[in-house]
Amino acid sequence: MTNAMFPRGMTRRGVLKGGMALTAAGLILPAGMAMAQAEPKKGGVFRVGIGHGSTTDGYDPGLWDQLYVQTFAAARHNQLIEIAADGSLVGEIAESWSSSDGANWVFKIRDGVTFHSGKPVTVDDVIASLNHHRGEASTSAVKPYFDAVTDIKADGTNLVVTLNAPNADFPYLMSDYHLPVMPGTDGKIDPTSPDGCGGYIVESYEPGVQATLKRNPDYWKSDRAHFDQIVLLTILDPAARLNALMTNEVDVIDQVDPASIGLLESRGVANILSISGNAHYVFPMDARAAPFTDNNVRLALKYAFDRQELVDKILAGHGSVSNDNPIGPANRYFFADMEAKTYDPDKAKSYLKKAGMDKLEVTLSAANAAFAGAVDAAVLMSEKAAPAGITITVDRVPDDGYWDNVWMKKPFCASYWGGRPVEDQMFTTAYQTGAAWNESFWSNAEFDKLLVAARSELDEAKRKDMYQEMQRLVSFEGSTIIPMYNNYVMALSKALATPEKVANNWNLDGFRCVERWWFA
Amino acid sequence: MNEIWRMIGRRLLLGLLTLFVISVVIFGATELLPGDLARELLGQSATPETLAALREQLGLNDPAPIRYLNWLWGVLHGDFGVSMATKKPIAELVGGRLGNTLFLALYAAALSVPLSLMLGVLAALWRNSVFDRMSNALALTSISFPEFFVAYILILWLAQTGLFPSMVRITASTTFSERIYMGFLPALTLTLVVTAHMMRMTRAAIINLLASPYIEMARLKGMSPLRVVLRHAVPNALAPIINVVALNLAYLITGVVVVEVVFVYPGLGQLMVDAVTNRDIPVVQAIALIFASAYVLLNLVADVLSTITNPRLMHRR
Amino acid sequence: MQVLVVLAVALVAFFGVALVSRAALRTFAPAHQKPTFRDMPLTASFGIAVILIYVLVAVFAPLLAPFKESEVVGAQYLPWAAPYYLGTDKLGRDMLTRLIYGARNTVGIAFATTALAFTVGSILGIWAALVGGWLDQWLSRFVDALMAIPALIFSLLLLTIFGTSVLSLILVIASVDATRVYRLARSVAQGIVVMDYIEAARLRGEGKWRLIRREILPNAMAPLVAEFGLRFCFVFLSISALSFLGLGIKPPTADWGSMVRENATLITFGDITPLLPAGAIALLTVAVNFVVDWQLHRASGLKE
Amino acid sequence: MEKQVLLTIRDLKIEGRSGDAWHQIVKGVDLTLHKGEVLGLIGESGAGKSTLGLAAMGYARDGCRISGGSIDFDGIDLRAAPEADRRALRGKRIAYVAQSAAASFNPAHKLIDQYCEGPVVHGVMPREKAEADAVELYRRMRLPNPDEIGFRYPHQVSGGQLQRAMTAMAMSCRPDLIIFDEPTTALDVTTQIEVLAAIRDIVRQFGTAAIYITHDLAVVAQMADRIKVLLRGDEVEESDTRSMLAAPREDYTRSLWAVRSFARPALPAATGTPVVSVRNVTAGYGAVDVLKDVSFDIHARRTVAVVGESGSGKSTTARVITGLLPPRKGEILFNGKPLPPSFKARSREELRQCQMIYQMADTALNPKLRLRELIGRPAEMYLGLKGRALETRIRDLLALIELEPDKYIDRLPSELSGGQKQRIGIARALAAEPQMIICDEVTSALDQIVQEGILKLLDRLQGELNLAYMFITHDLATVKSIADEVVVMQHGQVVERGPKAELFAAPKEDYTNLLLSSVPEMDLDWLNRLLAARGEHA
User: Fold this and answer.
1) How large is the ipTM?
2) Chains touching chain C at 3 or more Cβ pairs under 8 angstroms?
3) Which end of chain D is more exposed for a tag (fewer CB within 10 A), N or C?
4) Does any domain span residue A228?
5) B96-314, which class in CATH?
């Protein structure tokens, strides 16, 4: 219930900071488990139990922040661009897009798509939808995306977006879930209306409780949205979610309690879907505050805990060890051969000695708001650090207000990242000197120089070297402990079928389970 | 009878005072909480500009006393305001939840009050018997397990076997009988939680009277033990019993967050925790006032009933 | 069938513990206390034995526990087998060790909290009943107002504001609980302050503090002790409820409430692990209340 | 003519439990009762009279058990009969009238409902008939408004009327036997007369047999055909009333007869400044004046008895003197100087000088304190005694009230008998070394022989310590034995006051006369004569 009562902190931030997975998705199926992979069938009522949702949820896309509203949005809306299960960009409302210089982008708006109200989707609706996130008075979370946008206008039925500088990744931004196409009136969308052009039409919605949607009979995608009806339920309590699945009250649940995965599998009542992505758990240390100013101290801490143990006990094996590297195995320039750090109290001691200390006492602030199991992870780290002469005092802080009062305020705390599809995005967001979300306040001139240089480097091999050097710098000189990459773990009723490839960019098949999955 | 009306009037006035104090306490406490609604809504994406824009929009920039007085002014005019987060009128937001909460409370009360009174009377009748000791030990055991634990056990036994649903999905079209069926497990959980207290108090209140001369008189009139307890002891034990029932009913209305969470029951408790988390102060205030009113009213009803059932207070010399 | 076996074992254990403890109490009690224990019911002797065992376990936890409190000794969820007699928890800590330390932490904190709540609540309550007048009115109205706020939500608010150290946990729960004690103490004291001996003491010119301490409090003890028994248990439950909200006792401190919560999802699979800490709480609750019932019975002089 | 035997009790033994042990309360008593006969059971508290009376119904109180002997009611063996059979007899053929009707009527039900319960449940008559019957019996019991009094709740009816209503209720099934357990003890003397008359008449009218339990010989003499005297569970003697009164065989019986042998001659009227002077006091609660213009003086080494029935304002007067109830008008002078009206404003020395002894020693002594502290506290507080000096003083005080210090000093009040408790109340008052003591009904809860001891003690102490007593009582016998002056109160006013001898010899006021004449006398015909004299009843 920790998460249950204060569910917002955890993924909100992860989600916001998360990017779009670009590379291949991985689908890990436990041995012996066979998924129904037949041709999609239509019909059935699909009930999703989601460990998020609050009475303050609403239809304003600028304020969407967690799995419930995201999945709900994916059910009723389309965006300009969709990220396919394999990570590639697929046109949705934008039939195609192009740019001659990377600064002027032209999107061709698909013809013949209508909103649930019956009104056809026009370029003006798209402009209104994007403008909702622009301008002084906008309260949208993705307002910064549009800082570089100087103009959005229609060119016939095409949409033209002008940037103040070239950005080859701009289409990725347009696939963000905050940017659904909604009907506009006088250049404005109504942020309290559920109308969209997606596969399902809202029948009823009680925020924080449940939403019921029926299939959109006029949906332009004929091979999607297989269910007759979908019900999205907020079930905050992990045990209640599990019970709901086991008593066949729902067909799929997210965030399965790692402790129960094994039991659930052995019961044979559900299939476990465990998707590896770039999401990772981190423990940032404030590099400006003693004793973390000394890299030897940071290294001592990095060698003073058992990464595999954390993967085994916190993730129940549904994840993989990270070498303090925010770039995951799914990234293009992932530095797989970097010297691995293993649990080595002696080495930790020797680093402490180099820092001129015999023992170290630090306080680690953690709440499960940071990520599920953060407090337990901290306790495990504290246990393992003791033989190295390091005393980690675990300060379990309230979930409520964690991101306001602890994160980036306490010198050593727990945090979570959804990962980024592009290395540059990850580093720029959280590791560049002075970046808004540089949670460790780390500053490394060499790293900053490389980051800028790599952006304009065209030689693939050199670029790879540069990114790998940056990964090494973060790993061995950085001020962030990154013990593991976590999988998205879901439990599905046996009746449910999924495509062979399940997206790894977000949970629940990139929120799209509602339109990609079906009953076998 | 006039005295009763006077008492009701006086108590209602006191109740209003209580509500006022509570609104100040709750408002003050929520003010002391770190963060505000704008931060909660925007989360980590908050840039100073968006924060400022949202704060302006939500009217968070006024000083706290002004915001409180504005709220109070509205309430005094029967306007509980709108939820800051959803812009929905509070009445609409809270209304349905209140109905659900009351339904569950009444359901649990309908199960637990007769059960605990019956058990209490029987335990008093057969005091120190095996039945008395067993029911006492069982009652104590049931209250010493955390609520969620009781709930999970019931789910394991009664939901996984397919007898009852493990969660409650109430929509506008849910019929009454469906509600009864779906709400059974949460109501049963609450029943187990509150029965012990009521049962023990009933037993104690009755046993307390059994040494009275009029009970001996009833026995000496040749009345059966059951009749002695039911007709002679119970009417005189009503005041403490009514009070403990009222106290537990108040708990059933105000204290069931945990059960709501476990059974995914859309009640007021979850809404309040949610609103606290989101710093949606008008909603917090409204629910706090509902809870407090329930408490005040139930206490009032208990006192009125205690008075009405007590001839010494009803029929003055 | 299994249920019957468990029931039978439980009954045998109950009678065994109760009889042995009664015999022991009768033998070792000081001479003037012997009559007290002579006609003690089995439930009460069982209760006393259980409480004594808990106290011993709490005091000698470091000696009794096979491992250190938060030591990770092996893999998670190991079965019940030596040397982990009750298996391990989700982090691979020895369950038996955690239970033993849990006695110390949970019982200690609950006791401190209840004791504080009773000290403050009963003194204020008696004081209000004794002095009466506007002070009584104001204090009672204020307490009424506080009581009208649901306890869990109020504690949550206060703990979020004041932080979650053990001290603030004790202070917050105690202050919320003190309102309940206040009301009880006040109503009990109102029955006592009209007694002739209080009048006599007042006429003698005794001060308020002495009236409360020597004249009223000893006579209000019986109902207060009964309430203490139940409140003590409610404090456990409050702490475990607050543990859900991430506001309870901080890890890695072993605490039964949190332990129940941590393992709660396992109940779904009929796993017995969460039963251990929950059972530990339940057993203590029942034991405390058995003793309290006995004391009340004695105090009331009801001979039946 | 030999009457038919109704009840035969042989060698009855009843045990009561204290802790684990059982001790005998009734130690082998025989009893025979004929139809229509009234047997008086008499004895002090602890004699086992009530226990024996209840045993006649086959009933033992919680914590008691019938351990031996036989009870035969009209051919039914009450010990052997199943509980259901016994239950069928109770209320129907054997009825019970309890000491305190106010406590024995269920406060939750109307009188008539309680009346009808027995006949209806026992199937004697249907509800409608029972109601009509109730009205008839209420009329015969000379209750006012017999048609509507049954529809009142017990608390709306006065004590004397309740006692008559309870007798009516006992009659509801026309039982063969009624047990009267001290039915008039809790009543004022003037009320007692009416109730006694009503009970006697109804028993005679229906020819019901009765066991009449009381501690008051004068009362039982009016009611009973035969009298059995009990002492600590044993029978002392039994004989018909006339011969018992004329020639008791046993010493114990004679000692019962010899009540109030203690009487001290009144001292001459005192002169000089009174210790306490009540001057024109008017006082009350809320809007009601309970006291109206009350004045009297109390001198050193004198006892002023304040007499009156309940509600006459005796105790309120005490509360005004002690300062618990500041008067509306008038004042209290202490040695000629006015005292502050409220005790809160009085100095410690002023508080010390006037001490109080309460009627109910049970509620007047803190049950959780040991005697050492109970007695020692005033000495410690007022006189500043500490350590050895205090200990010595406590022991002296215990010796003064004739309790052995070593044995009692560490006891709790619950470990004392009623008379001993009252002595502790006295010791506590003495510990303050006051000039004046208010005794509020100090003997009325005690057995007569114990009362005697307390009165003697108080008298002795008065002489030794030069104390002034204000003696509040409703018991004229006590007044006769200890008072120097008498103040008669009624409805909050002083009706008459004067030296004891004058007042008793020639009461000036009607009320005083009524009060004096209502005190039962040890004479078989006292009640008849009195009623005849008052013209109420032949």
Assistant:
1) 0.79
2) A, B, D
3) N
4) yes
5) mainly alpha
